[in-house]
Amino acid sequence: MSAESPAAPRPARSIRQTLASIVLAFELVVVFLAALVIWGLDAAPFGLPAWSALIAGGVLLVGMIAAIGLLRVEAGFILGWVLQVLILLAGFLNPALFIVGALFGGMWWYCMVVGARIDRQRKELA
């Protein structure tokens, strides 16, 4: 038998972290599908090859996965904001992404504001 000390319990995730991970996870699916649509329609702009849509989508997906992993620190939230702007700007590549970017950007903003407020209230009550 080893004399291992019990692992310290992980601190509870904040509401802001939880909401941010939910938004990014749903957005991950939508961006994946959008990249496939742009590739499948051969609709890459500026005369780029169709597979460039898959590369750009893959970069965004890796960024979202990294942001989800970094949500324990402020850098994850900053990366999340950067990704929201990039997805909105992707509307210049495919106009439907303006709608996607606006919807998810609005959800991201709302989750950041409300999540921070709930976390402040919980901290005050504790």
Automatic annotation (TrEMBL):
Which keywords does this Swiss-Prot/TrEMBL entry list? Membrane, Transmembrane, Transmembrane helix
So where does this one cross the membrane?
Answer: 19-40, 46-68, 75-93, 99-118
Pfam families given in the database record: DUF4233 (PF14017)
Residues of the signal peptide: none
Name listed for the protein in its UniProt record? DUF4233 domain-containing protein
